[in-house]
């Protein structure tokens, strides 16, 4: 099972030019997985939150391409907050960690690169199911008993 210590803040290449800067991102180079999906989150009202879920298999790589936001991570035992506020830094989040993006500045844009295509079955959206998953309790058994 992954821990917060498996997360990596990666310094992306920064190619400076008087006409503007470029930060390239390559599969298996800056991003430690094969990129299968790319999306971005934007127009988030200032101070609002996003995310608040974990993945069973999917790796994520987050970049604040504009503005800033915090990423709160939880591995079931420890919590840590990362501030993303530069477009040349990215945060690698391996599967099995609860992640919530918070405190978006006005105009912030969060770029997300993932190791898997979208699959709802890969998401853990309930924090208690996540905690039970991390402690080895079968989430399906919990759901069966909680619905009685």
The low-confidence parts are: none
Q: Going by CATH, what is the homologous superfamily?
A: Jelly Rolls
- What is the CATH level 1 assignment? Mainly Beta
Order of helices and strands: EEEEEEEEEEHH
Cα-based radius of gyration, to the nearest Å: 16 Å
What would a concise description of this structure say?
This protein is mainly beta and 148 residues long.
Describe the protein:
The structure is a single chain. This protein is mostly beta strands. It has two helices and ten strands, in the order ββββββββββαα. A five-stranded antiparallel β-sheet has the order 1-7-4-9-2, with no helix packed on it. Strands 6-5-8-3-10 form a five-stranded antiparallel β-sheet. A hairpin with a 4-residue loop joins β5 (69-74) and β6. The model has no long low-confidence stretch (mean pLDDT 91).
Blueprint (SSEs and pairs):
Blueprint: E1 8-11, E2 37-41, E3 50-55, E4 60-66, E5 69-74, E6 79-84, E7 89-93, E8 98-102, E9 109-114, E10 123-124, H1 127-134, H2 139-146
